[in-house]
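Ticket #4471: structure export looks truncated?
Reporter: QA, pipeline team
Priority: medium

Steps to reproduce: submit the single chain below to the structure queue and open the exported record.
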Amino acid sequence: MSTINEKTVITCAVTGGFDTAGKNPAVPVTPEQIATSALEAEKAGASVAHIHVRDPETTLASMDPALYREVVSRLRDAGSNLILNLTTGPGARYIPGDNDPMSPAAGTTLKTPAVRVEHVDELRPEVCTLDVATMNFGEHVFMNTPAHLREMGQRIKAAGVKPELEVFEAGHARLALKLVEDGIIEKPPLFQLCLGIPWGAPATAETMAYMASLLPPGTLWSGFGIGRMQFPMAAQAVILGGHVRVGLEDNLYLDRGELAPSNAALVERAVTIVEALGSKVAAPDEARVIFGLKKEAA
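Actual output as written to the record:
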């Protein structure tokens, strides 16, 4: 039976890659805005910043290493103690052509594993995501084959970075555990249960409990729901003994009809939930110990 953690790690997913910048002016776009928003989230109680980057001209998702480089440099130069978690999700979208499904349509972003982890190899964050998922993701296919996952996992390990295994369905968790069993992912693994994404597992208490039950006892995991289920799923993660993710990547609202004014506001609400349920918020160095990023001092 799960017990609530004494200390709960809060991750802030700062901006994401969806076309949301026009839906809430608080969504950060430029490297300066992304870094500033992450620093504000840190002050509010986040220990981890999950980072995507956007093209400053179009506001859309980007894979430009220079943009990642600037965000990371700004955070490090500011003296931030955040655990940086860089995404490797971009580069997995496939849209079949209307006349020839073997030929990709406009909007396809498929890239090689080497390209998808190029910024991780260069910048060496403490954590990066590894999306163990092939699924219908809205109207496109999110494609991550086992062979690509093995190569990405090996490259991430060679860089000395801990992968956060993002799973969106029960089968994804099973594949991720196979990667751990095969030594592609080092123990202890870190999971992120991603709920509510069309067309993945729904963001319900029952689904999160089931997904968590698939993980071996003692497995480190965090969970989130998107949209209006962000805060209910944060509470459920704490109750089940997991950690929490919130942020403008996953949800644009603070309350019904009220746009979130910042990532910090979403983190502050998460802090309230964590503490109301009897846990305490982990500081960044405490989160490093919990996630196995730094050994406890003797």
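Status: closed, not a bug. The export was complete when the record was re-opened. Leaving a note from the reviewer for reference: The longest helix spans residues 31-44.
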